[in-house]
Amino acid sequence: MLKGELGLPSDRQLCVALARGAKKLDAAAYEKGSAARVNPEEQSADVKGRIANMLVSFACYMEKQGYRPETIRGNAGALRALLSRNADVLSPESVKEVLATEAKKGENGEKAWGGNRRRNIINAYTLFLRVNGLSWEKPRCNVVRKIPFIPTEQEIDELVAGCPTKVATLLQLLKETAMRSGEAKRLKWIDLDFQRRTITLNEPEKNSLPRIWGNLNSKLLGMLNALPRTSERIFGDCTLNSLKATYTRARRRLAVKLQNPRLLQVHFHTLRHWKATMEYHYTKDPFHVMNFLGHKRMDNTALYVQLDQKLFKDLPDDSFTMRVAHNAEEATKLGEVGFEPFDVVDGVRLYRKRK
Q1: Is CB count within 10 Å lower at the N or C end of the chain?
Q2: Domain locations in the chain?
Q3: pLDDT at 39
């Protein structure tokens, strides 16, 4: 079964959802091999049934081949996006027309699919064609990697303080560990060790490496401990999308209340970028950041070197307050007030915090 904590439906539910989307296909366009998109009401039942069966086969193929749930969900969503625009998924020219239309919208400043979204749809459609014994000449899609927005720590803390308890706890966890939101949503209570102050991630996304974080501060542990234990999952059985919706509403309210529109740019994944940037800034060790994020390749981590150089280039070298921790108790107290470990000298761990 595909149903899980990410809100992904079962294989049967997924197939039904895709089949419903297939009703938007045009029979005349299919029969003529045309890229035209006309009234969905004019479709024949035979065409709807054939497309629905192909979509079912596509979903089942991905499951049998061992694709990750988030990949299956993403590919299914890509096909639904095409169907929602009345594309004929049996006609590559029809799909190309939809992609070209979306690209023109973006050039004109209208709301449209971004480069990453277009690339994902192209890849999902290519796999769909291959599964069904078809092929096409993929259209070009040049994706420019954008520089992510990096908020201040104060802005993150304001969001944590202003969100409902469960979302606030999730934000604090993402801030301190740089997990992806989907990874955090999968966490189980058994992954959390209050005595050793550690949390373990054994279900990473995007083929990342498993990770473990130690010396969690008391604030985060207290927030986690306060959550109700109604499920084996730390954040319960609600879907990730429902948490995102709750966060979006709270973020909008806080942006107005605090008169800070920058808060609207802070998404769950933004905290991963923020933490990675700060980890490199404190350690100047790209291999540490690569391991911290679970990356397998250094080129995925190089972005944070660039961000550090741009964000902190004008700050003086004496912009840190330094402290020394001689034992675990002192280290805990320093961590609770925002100090980060950065070096060990003569067996003594040094901590620092930006002024």
Answers
A1: C
A2: 11-131, 153-314, 316-355
A3: 47
In this prediction, residues 308-332 reach a mean pLDDT of 75
In this structure, what DSSP letter does residue 191 have? G
Residue 170 has pLDDT above 50, yes or no: yes
Q: What is the DSSP string of 291-340?
A: HHHT-SSGGGTHHHHHHHHHHSTTS-TT-EEEEEE-SHHHHHHHHHTT-E
Nearest to 197 by CA among 228, 178, 166, 176: 176
Is 153-314 a CATH 1.10.443.10 domain? yes
For residue 314, give both structure tokens.
């004008």
Taking the CA atoms of residue 220, residue 224, residue 226 and residue 230 in that order, the dihedral angle to the nearest 10 degrees is 170
Q: Which residue has the higher pLDDT, 261 or 2?
A: 261
Alpha carbon dihedral 152, 162, 252, 104, in 10-degree steps, equals 50
- The Cα 247–Cα 346 span in angstroms is 45
DSSP-derived 3-state class of residue 212: strand
> How confident is the model at residue 73, as a pLDDT?
85
Per-residue pLDDT, 71: 86
Rounded to 10°, the helix 268-283/165-177 angle is 30
User: 277 vs 265, 301, 303, CA distance in Å?
Assistant: 17, 10, 9
pTM of the model: 0.72
